[in-house]
Amino acid sequence: xxxxxxxxxxxxxxxxxxxxxxxxxxxxxxxxxxxxxxxxxxxxxxxxxxxxxxxxxxxxxxxxxxxxxxxxxxxxxxxxxxxxxxxxxxxxxxxxxxxxxxxxxxxxxxxxxxxxxxxxxxxxxxxxxxxxxxxxxxxxxxxxxxxxxxxxxxxxxxxxxxxxxxxxxxxxxxxxxxxxxxxxxxxxxxxxxxxxxxxxxxxxxxxxxxxxxxxxxxxxxxxxxxxxxxxxxxxxxxxxxxxxxxxxxxxxxxx
Length: 255
Description:
Elements: H1 3-18, E1 24-25, H2 27-35, E2 44-47, H3 53-62, E3 66-71, E4 75-80, E5 83-88, H4 100-104, E6 107-111, E7 114-118, H5 121-128, H6 139-149, H7 155-162, H8 166-179, H9 189-202, H10 224-228, H11 245-252
Parallel strand pairs: 2-5
Antiparallel strand pairs: 1-2, 3-4, 4-5, 6-7
């Protein structure tokens, strides 16, 4: 990574810390701390609750950086020349908002010489589990996090995070057992039993199923045919999700 980028990232961390704005570090830096995997990162991922977003952007702008609200439902950016930091307050699908509980379970570390808090592994798994784009798939990150942190995860909290989207978690757990057969026991048996029971309940006779394509929570574009031509409801919109039609157009159909 070029030295100017590291200097910019460090200054972003120091600026937010000096302004007493609660934030967490995620992305490649969190993956390195949680799994030991080092990789070149093209940006810095900062996580804040939505109510603190304007304060964070104001502090960064006052520090001399160009800021923008890139997508009004989940992402802002701070720029310094070619370098940028992502300021994240939700997931692109709108279903994984940053809330105060993230901070309650965060761990402390040092990033670029600055004391910071990291996104908890449970929330990191939660957000990454939904990223299944044609050009970007975070399943390997999920598997690596499960391998490194599975024995110490708050599994009930992780299940609660997924809620009605428990199938997404279950799918990753099944794949994990395939990827790492000698690490299957890091997944508690009660977790597998609980999710298997959910699966069995869904297949009971007479259980109604809505005409909705939940694939749009996994990929912003790959299920356009389903919602535009085949009549499936898009769960990113009400009554399932909270995105507005304009936010959906800006995010899902952005070139």
